[in-house]
Specification:
This protein is mostly helical. The protein has 20 helices and no strands. The longest helix has 26 residues, at 162-187.
Length: 456
């Protein structure tokens, strides 16, 4: 006799096309846990991520061994995966005719292989637990960054560097805000009206204390005040919920996201001193507010201005922007070379061959092997046509996130993509494996949600 629970969780292929090879329920649960482990490890260690991810991709490929034609089934999937497939094909063709095809081969295979992460998270992952695991790992890495910035010399450097982490934060921060907003939306009819104010106050105090701890290592009092702020917030929450036990799950989520996750992620973004992700997060957050909280737009702009003026490390970093842009071997030189290469080689110099840019100027540091701009880098390596296809892919992805009926989480992911590409105007974050794995994870989560909605 068929297990009804299993039958419910494994839809008929003719109706949904979720899986060509039905998997036992226990196996599905283990694969879902594997997706959560991958999401947790991405912000921490790439090696641990690959140890968990590569077997998941292999299992997914085996489960599709007789149905490769069914990888893309719905119009929503084809609208975004179609441009991605064309982009990968165009990049492959450009690599073949490039100046060094053999040098392009290994990174190209890696790019194509790990893009299958989309399908793994679409078919095996549960979007809520995957995103929660991602934010948990990102928060742990953020705590490390804050403590490291506090000049604790005995604190080991065990996680990713500030460049990669800031690129990830440009994505994860918007996801965190989306989950926080979704939690409040789900429980607003049962939550006491004071909960948002308590969460906002505790979050703001926590962020200020973390910033003091991160920017000024002598501010030991900030750590004590931080603990006091968290303790007061949770104590007040418990008092507010004593007559509303049914609202506890939503309230616990709101307080955890707003007083632990969000302040740490924001503080890590600030102390890493990366201007591209700063701009990306501000633009992404402003876009999110256009959908759900237009009254907060002025507050966001005011907060960004006050932070830029009042915090000396941030103020100095922003003030030096033009000098860093025009410095010898800086972005002004790099971008000029990239645009010249894009014009000279219509099909590009080949994927991952940007290292030749130093041949055009001895001012460029030897360790610099990209153009600090997503579109210029793609145009120089794979041609203007491929860069145009990449724009098509990004547009299709954002459009998918903003499709109606709107989902708070999907809108937040769309804003995260905008944040990612805004930061990509001054850095090559498309070439960062850890950042791209988060993008594939987010896209797979959206497509998984849409498939489940289509089944039900």
């Amino acid at each position: 006799m068929t297990n009804p629970e299993r039958a419910q969780n494994v839809p008929n292929n003719s109706q949904s096309g979720i899986r060509a090879w039905p998997l036992p329920l226990r196996t599905q649960q283990l694969l879902g846990a594997g997706c959560a482990i991958v999401a947790f490890c991405i912000p921490l260690k790439l090696a641990f991520t690959y140890i968990a991810l590569i077997p998941l991709i292999a299992i997914w490929l085996f489960s599709k061994r007789w149905a490769y034609h069914g990888w893309i089934r719905t119009s929503a999937e084809s609208s975004v995966l179609g441009p991605l497939v064309f982009f990968l094909l165009a990049t492959s063709c450009a690599a073949i005719v490039g100046i060094n095809p053999l040098h392009s081969l290994s990174p190209l295979i890696s790019l194509i292989f790990f893009s299958l992460t989309i399908f793994v998270f679409r078919d095996f992952g549960h979007s809520y637990y995957v995103l929660l695991a991602l934010l948990s790992g990102q928060t742990l890495a953020a705590l490390h960054s804050v403590l490291d910035a506090a000049a604790l010399q005995s604190f080991p450097d065990i996680f990713l560097g500030s460049v990669t982490e800031s690129g990830q934060l440009a994505l994860s921060l918007l996801v965190c805000i989306g989950m926080l907003w979704q939690k409040y939306h789900d429980g607003k009819d049962r939550l006491p009206p004071s909960i948002p104010r308590v969460a906002a106050a505790t979050s703001g105090i926590s962020l200020m204390m973390l910033a003091c701890l991160g920017f000024y290592s002598t501010a030991n009092l900030s750590g004590v005040l931080l603990i006091v702020a968290w303790g007061c917030g949770f104590t007040l929450l418990k008092h507010l919920l004593k007559n509303a036990p049914r609202s506890l799950p939503e309230a616990r989520g709101i307080l955890t996201l707003s007083t632990v996750f969000l302040p740490l992620l924001l503080c890590a973004l600030l102390v890493n001193l990366k201007r591209g992700p700063w701009l990306g997060v501000v633009i992404g957050l402003a876009t999110f507010c256009l959908f759900y909280a237009r009254k907060l737009l002025a507050l966001i702009v005011l907060g960004a201005v006050i932070t830029s003026v009042s915090v000396p490390p941030i103020r100095d970093r922003l003030a030096a922007s033009y000098e860093h842009f025009t410095i010898s071997g800086g972005r002004s030189t790099i971008w000029k070379i990239g645009l010249e290469l894009a014009g000279k080689y219509p099909l590009g110099v080949g994927y991952h061959n940007s290292g030749i840019l130093r041949n055009f100027s001895l001012e460029i540091p030897p360790e610099l092997k990209h153009f600090h701009n997503n579109l210029i880098n793609i145009a120089a390596e794979s041609g203007v046509l491929t860069a145009s296809i990449f724009i098509w892919f990004i547009y299709s992805l954002v459009r998918l996130c903003f499709r109606k009926p709107l989902s708070v989480l999907h809108v937040a992911i769309g804003c995260a993509i905008i944040s990612w590409q805004t930061a990509g105007l001054v850095e090559y974050n498309f070439g960062d494996s850890e950042v791209m794995l988060i993008v594939w994870l987010l896209l797979g989560s959206i497509l998984g949600d849409l498939r489940k909605q289509a089944v039900h």
